[in-house]
Amino acid sequence: MADDVETMIVTMEFDAAAPDSLLAVLAKYVVVARGADGCRNIDLCASATTPGRFVVISKWASPAAQRAHFDDTAMVEMARACEGILERPPRLDLLEGLSAHDLH
């Protein structure tokens, strides 16, 4: 089914050991990633139920654009900046956008 899907959605869940430091890293990443080729949208969210948990949700024009971004400098720099400020490794999930529409 993935070959038929045009939109990919990525969720990245981070549990912070140092919330202020992590928030700064993720906020910078979101701003930079918004300009990546194929990025349709990216949001940074704070969990309302788990203090210190942040979730980045991004929508990509294609699986190829999403894969390219994972090797991009912005992603690599964000991952390196997270060293020592997380409670555990981030949880990532790739979702096929079956009914994900842009609301322009």
Topology:
Layout: E1 8-15, H1 19-33, E2 39-46, E3 53-60, H2 63-70, H3 73-81, E4 91-96
Antiparallel strand pairs: 1-3, 1-4, 2-3
Helix pairs in contact: 1-3
Could you write a compact summary of the structure shown?
The chain is α+β, with helices and mostly antiparallel strands.
What key attributes describe this structure?
alpha+beta; Alpha-Beta Plaits; 4 strands; globular
Describe the structure.
This protein is α+β, with helices and mostly antiparallel strands and 104 residues long. The protein has a single domain (2-53, 66-96), classed as Alpha-Beta Plaits. Helix content is 31%, strand content 29%. It has three helices and four strands. It has helices at 19-33, 63-70, 73-81, and strands spanning 8-15, 39-46, 53-60, 91-96. It has a four-stranded antiparallel beta sheet. The mean pLDDT is 90.
